[in-house]
């Protein structure tokens, strides 16, 4: 067996990545259209055409029969929808990653856009047609990544280990987990994986660390990604993954939809939105309406973004900016007219990163008004981060309480875990040594190592 037949697949809430073995070491594949990490987003001109699109892709590789059998009731209508799109002059292709976002922003009201589909796989009350819809979304994203492997000159793997949280988000954890794993399993089978295994993400993230251990440790694994935070207290030790039931190693777990994006949004709202008029007072003595400012900042909430770009919101902003005292509101109107909320959020993220090693930074808002600069300092960042850090701290307390024992060490992974503010928060809260993994690639690396262990 060649190592190219196996892979580790991180189907993450914020990003997706694939790892393969090369010369006895893990290699995260450089995806030609995305780099090592593809944003977990999908765009389709219309939801109804997705099944037909996926069937067409699979048919070209002679992999269509299982999918055709599973979707025999939906395929005729989906094919008609795709044909009608072409007749009407619309595209009939799907987009992924940053390209999906760009296509969505061209016309948010008339398309199908999914961000972080993993967050919904365990949702309670999904009917069979809805589960099938998510299978198609996941399968389409997996298929795209396999096509990216082709373009990168890599062989397509037929055996894969996919990461999974301890619990998918849903009202009943057992039912939610079964549902989510079935969706992932079916999607993986549709796109051609012959063997599919799952590994807990905190186990995967800490696998390289665990291989160095000579004795047992209780490890608090803190995984703060872009959209979610998952904290687990797990038992680690030499060869424990090979010798013990994985579920028995998990002593406590808690997860929440708060992550790096929430830090960016809070900093944006706290430090950048005042330069767009968020703290102005109307002639009546009342503050300007704050809702449009929050909606503009909340890029992880599609309903907020849709509301911000709505005609009624623009009409309100246009009315406000006509008051001499409220001219700065015109900058927010420009943001809406030019559809630049994601650009502003990206600047907030850059400011957050800059504040990791300096006391203050300047953000160039010249795209809204020539010469406009915003100064952002460490104190503003700390104030804006208080709510998210408090939520994550209580999450860690909950995981420790479930375990009924104290951790020996804290293992930190996920992009936001790299922040000195976040690391300082955990040091002060628990007084324990911190171990840092690869903040972005720990899970993918561990999944690939595990695939190499069980399949080779």
Automatic annotation (TrEMBL):
Any one Gene Ontology MF annotation carried by this entry is: ATP binding
Q: Which UniProt keywords apply?
A: ATP-binding, Nucleotide-binding
Task: Using the record, list the residue span of the signal peptide; answer none if the entry has no such feature.
Answer: none
Q: In which domain of life is the source organism classified?
A: Bacteria
Similarity section: Belongs to the heat shock protein 70 family.
What's the protein name? Hypothetical chaperone protein
Question: Organism source for this protein?
Answer: Ferrimonas sediminum
